[in-house]
Amino acid sequence: MSLATLDVSQHPNLPQSSATLFAAKAQKKVTFEEIAKVVGRDEVAVAALFYGQAKASPEDIKNLSEYFGIEHATLEQQLGGFPDRGKSVEWPPKEPLIYRLMEIVQNYGYAYKAILNEKFGDGIMSAIAFSTHVEKEVDKDGVTWVNIKLRGKWLPFTRF
Amino acid sequence: MSLATLDVSQHPNLPQSSATLFAAKAQKKVTFEEIAKVVGRDEVAVAALFYGQAKASPEDIKNLSEYFGIEHATLEQQLGGFPDRGKSVEWPPKEPLIYRLMEIVQNYGYAYKAILNEKFGDGIMSAIAFSTHVEKEVDKDGVTWVNIKLRGKWLPFTRF
Amino acid sequence: MSLATLDVSQHPNLPQSSATLFAAKAQKKVTFEEIAKVVGRDEVAVAALFYGQAKASPEDIKNLSEYFGIEHATLEQQLGGFPDRGKSVEWPPKEPLIYRLMEIVQNYGYAYKAILNEKFGDGIMSAIAFSTHVEKEVDKDGVTWVNIKLRGKWLPFTRF
Amino acid sequence: MSLATLDVSQHPNLPQSSATLFAAKAQKKVTFEEIAKVVGRDEVAVAALFYGQAKASPEDIKNLSEYFGIEHATLEQQLGGFPDRGKSVEWPPKEPLIYRLMEIVQNYGYAYKAILNEKFGDGIMSAIAFSTHVEKEVDKDGVTWVNIKLRGKWLPFTRF
Amino acid sequence: MSLATLDVSQHPNLPQSSATLFAAKAQKKVTFEEIAKVVGRDEVAVAALFYGQAKASPEDIKNLSEYFGIEHATLEQQLGGFPDRGKSVEWPPKEPLIYRLMEIVQNYGYAYKAILNEKFGDGIMSAIAFSTHVEKEVDKDGVTWVNIKLRGKWLPFTRF
Amino acid sequence: MSLATLDVSQHPNLPQSSATLFAAKAQKKVTFEEIAKVVGRDEVAVAALFYGQAKASPEDIKNLSEYFGIEHATLEQQLGGFPDRGKSVEWPPKEPLIYRLMEIVQNYGYAYKAILNEKFGDGIMSAIAFSTHVEKEVDKDGVTWVNIKLRGKWLPFTRF
Amino acid sequence: MSLATLDVSQHPNLPQSSATLFAAKAQKKVTFEEIAKVVGRDEVAVAALFYGQAKASPEDIKNLSEYFGIEHATLEQQLGGFPDRGKSVEWPPKEPLIYRLMEIVQNYGYAYKAILNEKFGDGIMSAIAFSTHVEKEVDKDGVTWVNIKLRGKWLPFTRF
Amino acid sequence: MSLATLDVSQHPNLPQSSATLFAAKAQKKVTFEEIAKVVGRDEVAVAALFYGQAKASPEDIKNLSEYFGIEHATLEQQLGGFPDRGKSVEWPPKEPLIYRLMEIVQNYGYAYKAILNEKFGDGIMSAIAFSTHVEKEVDKDGVTWVNIKLRGKWLPFTRF
Amino acid sequence: MSLATLDVSQHPNLPQSSATLFAAKAQKKVTFEEIAKVVGRDEVAVAALFYGQAKASPEDIKNLSEYFGIEHATLEQQLGGFPDRGKSVEWPPKEPLIYRLMEIVQNYGYAYKAILNEKFGDGIMSAIAFSTHVEKEVDKDGVTWVNIKLRGKWLPFTRF
Amino acid sequence: MSLATLDVSQHPNLPQSSATLFAAKAQKKVTFEEIAKVVGRDEVAVAALFYGQAKASPEDIKNLSEYFGIEHATLEQQLGGFPDRGKSVEWPPKEPLIYRLMEIVQNYGYAYKAILNEKFGDGIMSAIAFSTHVEKEVDKDGVTWVNIKLRGKWLPFTRF
């Protein structure tokens, strides 16, 4: 089984922590699923953290430092700030897997809006008070499916 | 409770069927949830059909025609072809609800890719062999959450 | 004193309600400040409503209908749905007044982020659970200043 | 509490002073609020200065040099010129916190214009003769709010 | 001598006043120079007014109405509001004359900035507290030159 | 008084001569006005030369070499070719001072065209057979104004 | 042999004269070569005039009016002003023939610049003091070639 | 007379051969016209080769190697592959000389198409089976003109 | 089985012939495969002709006129000119089927270039001297495959 | 015969494996056709692998390592992860060979869609469950043609 890796020359604008963490992951040859258990977070969140898109708590830094044998001070210095999100994916994406996720939004965007408006009123689903989870499913015909769950707080527009 | 409507002047490039169907919906004052029961499809699929983003089967056309009292020939002429998808959402979207869905892809795009690659190998989640469903959740603290489920077939890249 | 008006040929993609309301406003020769008192909302919210960027409550529709002498059914049909936001301002804006607001975000964007992160943690200021208010100030030297207040709920990123 | 930091690999086009100042800030482990007291300026202005978006006075340079123990000549050479603004935020922004500020302008741009025109006449709010301030508010229900104040000189279009 | 005219099919998003005024100008066969004398404003300002880029005073409306024999109420309704600037020139411009003006900014932008910063400090030349004037020059060799004068108030960045 | 400087990390695509010249200028602590006297050219032209937007004559190279004590061969190698214009300003510009110059073209572009066409016929003002000059003005009320003069040869479209 | 025609629905932003002239051309079934003889101009210039990209002289209007039997007043009203160039070709062009012309500039742009700079000095080839001509060539092997000649005045950059 | 040179910091994405060749050219102080004689190709082709936009034959490599005293193996390694065209000119071009060439295509694109269609039928002028040549002309009034000849094979669209 | 149709409101910039032909096709309820037999051309070519992307010969016009019962003069007037290609697909495409074709070029573009260069030398595959054909394949496992064949003339770059 | 090579300065964002593999290929002086035989894959797939657009199996890595004499550990580290597709071709492409492939999609996109919809129903041709093959053809007149075959699984839109 192959592991997700990072080629820094393809992502020159990711934070230094991304290079550090992916190098450690490659050396230890572990999956995000395994790391997620160590950190106690969802694997998508852990991958996002590796790509500089999620905040590491002091506990996360400690766990990752110990697990990978990275000097704590180094990791703290690289991961201790606030994520500067939005620098991982070029937009619009040319990566086929990411494109299809975007295409779902392109095709069903107004359908989601119509359904959510009728069900919840005038507002949005938060992408901040938000979590997501991925599951693998093999149906009875042996076909493999991806299930992605998005769960976001409903935020009604304030009337003012 | 308000209903989702369509203002044609805001969407000059939607198909004629969109105008026809939304006008009928506004007149009958029904939600997509109610229409979905009549058509026997998920409400997101029905809303997508109204926005010209999903194919109507002959049965769908018959059901919609009868339910809304739209002449069958008219609806068949407008809905009988193949959807010309991608004309509903301007891109990048400025609509706040749709933007946040896109932002989830922007922020978690590579995290999803890494997780899916490690779980499934080299491939993509199909946006075609795909379904989606929306659910409302009120948690024990009375907070309202949106749950969106995306389910797509896993397509491995062909080795050639 | 001049009044804010709408020239539909300059804004072909605004909802029909915008044309209806601005025409009524021009005929009655009233400012947004005056309308705001009738509707009982902030004048920025009322102007946003006129531009199709805010939701009208049933009460708003009733008040506007009576105040302007617009048939209630017409206004309800045009304003009863959910706003399809994002169709008023072309982006990036060429309008000088709007550009300068955008420029403030361009120049101070990361400064705001740094300050807010240090004061509140990892999160965002909501643009949905949000209100805004404009005030005129003439200082002791007779210089006129604009004060714009933005008040948004702080939303911390969910840890997952 | 985490501190705002700068990862130079994410911001290759900021001035050298940004790297110098953020490195010193990280080493001394101080917030912008603390630095602002030393410099005697608003914390947003100080953060903007760190991001190369505001001018440092000779006094600022002296204060920062002493406070952080950076050689005065170095800081003067890096901060002594005029800011070359606009190189901090990619545009349109993908950073969620910054995006929402932009979204406020997108959604309320014409509403602000209409209100300001009716209150002040034909002109703009200056983004140059301008100051801004951020405040934290916890309301009686314990909900946290961000308050951003924008104060700009009103500039009427010259009639010629 | 040819006159500047407006072909509405080329400029569908100009205000209605543009069509009205240019039609009247074409019928009366007058230059902007002549109109400028009637209105008592610079001819560039008058042309800008015709393109919907400058505010008309009540006096301007009265003068234009009388001069062109346009019904006062019509012109007041079309010109009485505030200009919604930025809808005349597509950007970047493909029109050769306008492109060259933009090219001057592209080529000399930082040179102007450097000179103005050294002469005036940290600030900008206002495009609002601004006037401009065009003059024709034929030099001693019979060569024809255009002279454009830009005069804008210097606005220093506020220190805060 | 501050001096205009160049931070190479903000302008990675300027020619090497820009780095050389700005470093020398910073070291000698001179304004463009002073350099202009040495070179015998307008200060805007000199600044443009520093930004790689104007051609240096052999005499210019000699003068600059002597004045700044830069080895003649080095400067000749860096400045002896032809300018590769257009690499200084990102477009559209986010720098506020440069943006306002562009905004003048956006707002008054067609007004200039109309006036120039009526005064000169069908053609353009050259940006090549062109010079520009900046002057500071303090009016009788003590208000500071920038005056920018643009002088370009009129080029009529060839009839063929 | 087919004739070049104009389908207005494909070019909604061309001037009215384009519709008028192309309709007359289609009715009279004549080529641009034939029209060029009547007007006494190069056929490329005449086609450019039909597309609203070249100025018609009073004589041109008279000739075209007589030749096509279009009322003189109509044609004068539509063609009497100054061309508003740049509205015929969307940019970048998707039309294959036009794309290839653009590609020549993309591929050989810097080669032309280098050659012209060495042959003529620092300047440009004017696109205004400019003419162009097309010729058909069949070589000795029976292969058909297009020859396009571009002739533009050399404009040296003014030293100032 | 100045020579065309290359500043690598302005063109970071040109092939290594460009740096090698331009450095040799600068050292030997020769024009493209002189090099063209050595290589036996048109000077535009040679300049294109220097910019990585044309293929070098083994003979070209040998000639250039000998003429400039560049080690043959080095040049062969750098020039022996196939050009990866399109990386020299940013698009749209801001360089004034290149812009004007593009502007000719913008202004006369459809005129060329109409003329070529009527003269040759449905097809395009090839930019591949293509050559170009530049000539200097001084007319009887002493005015200097550039003549650029484009010669491309006519390719009719295949009927299928 | 559904038929491909055209909704003009989704494609406002197609030629009039597209509306005429698709309306006739919808009324006669025929597939492109059937029409292709009548016209004697490949079905892709016929569909391209319906979308205004291929030239109709006089024979095609006659055949289509007779087959669909469209007045010959009407069809000749609409189809007799030269296609103005490139107005059918917005770019980049949001239509999922068309996007995937583009994605193949994005992913395999340089692979094709490398293979073609090594097999054929320096040149391109013509998109003009070009034909294409689509075939349906059901493999032994009952899986359905699309086969698209692209056949283009190899055009070597001219050495000059 | 020339070989396809990679100039890293032209492709700074390709993965490290691209530099490694292309350097080895240049040194060994082999074509993709020869490498393809060693790897046992189609030559387009091999070229795609070199450009970081296809996954290498452990067997591929072993074969390439042995064939080129690259240390296995190095190649495994560089090629062992999942391709991060979409970083090879800038978009839209300026490379002429790649552009023409894109142009085929631009011109025939809706024609393909119409034909595929009528032949297969509502769905897409997969670019993932996909293979492609290139063949050289010399016809009886000695003309050289490229044949590109695209074979993708048909994916019907799921009805939900």
Task: Sketch the major β-sheet of chain A.
Answer: 2 strands, antiparallel
Termini distance of chain A? Answer: 55 Å
Largest interface, Cβ cutoff 8 Å = A-B, 71 and 71 residues
What is the CA-based Rg of chain A, rounded?
A: 18 Å
| Helix and strand pattern of chain A | HHHHHHEE
Shape of chain A: globular
Please report which band the strand proportion of chain A falls in: under 5%, 5-15%, 15-25%, 25-35%, 35-45% or over 45%: 15-25%
Low-confidence stretches of chain A: none
- Share of helix among residues of chain A? 40-55%
Q: What oligomeric state is this? A: homodecamer
Tally of individual helices of chain A = 6
| Average pLDDT score of chain A | 97
Neighbour order of strands in the largest sheet of chain A: 1-2
The tally of strands of chain A reads 2
Topology:
Ten copies of one chain form a homodecamer.
Chain A: H1 16-28, H2 32-39, H3 43-50, H4 58-68, H5 72-79, H6 96-120, E1 123-138, E2 144-156
Antiparallel strand pairs in A: 1-2
Helix pairs in contact in A: 2-3, 4-5
